[in-house]
Design brief:
single chain; 190 residues; alpha+beta; Butyryl-CoA Dehydrogenase, subunit A, domain 3; elongated; transmembrane helix
Amino acid sequence: MVFLCPTVLDIVALAVTVVSVALQYLSFFYPEWWSYKHVSSALVERTKTVGMYQTVECLPKCETKLLVNIEGDYEWLFISRIFEVFACFLCILALFMHVLYLPIRKEGVRSVAIYLLGAAGLFALGGSFVFAALYDSLGDGLAAGTHSASFPFGINILAGFLHILASALTAVATVKAAGHGGDSDMASIV
């Protein structure tokens, strides 16, 4: 095992990874990506909130559907949710590889983190873009009311771009480490 001091770029790449993972999980578990509210003339309130983890619909009794429930005409929502699950899984694995790299310092470990972060970013953005393209259909068939996308949607897009940025920073750190006598046979991976 090689124990070397991390460089500033190593620390920055790790910090961006930590922030991107935190934002990914915050956006995934926040319950309100889209919300709807309608109050009828009889003052009966109907609400519906859609998140990546669950959908809650109240009229006036509430019903909760978890992410594994495929709702009719909303198969796209299931696809968006699955993309976000993959993004969560891949980014936490990438964070684990980053932390594992600190004591081990093998560029192969770091290369795995690069690919995992890149894939997590693509899945996060893919899920966001599917949601962005089709979330207006969530209001179809509902009485006129207020409905809109909420801030976790934007946080998820930011997390996706940060995953990709962290992947790029990690790649640069890996190439620089290889150029300074690191595990040079792995420098060609990135």
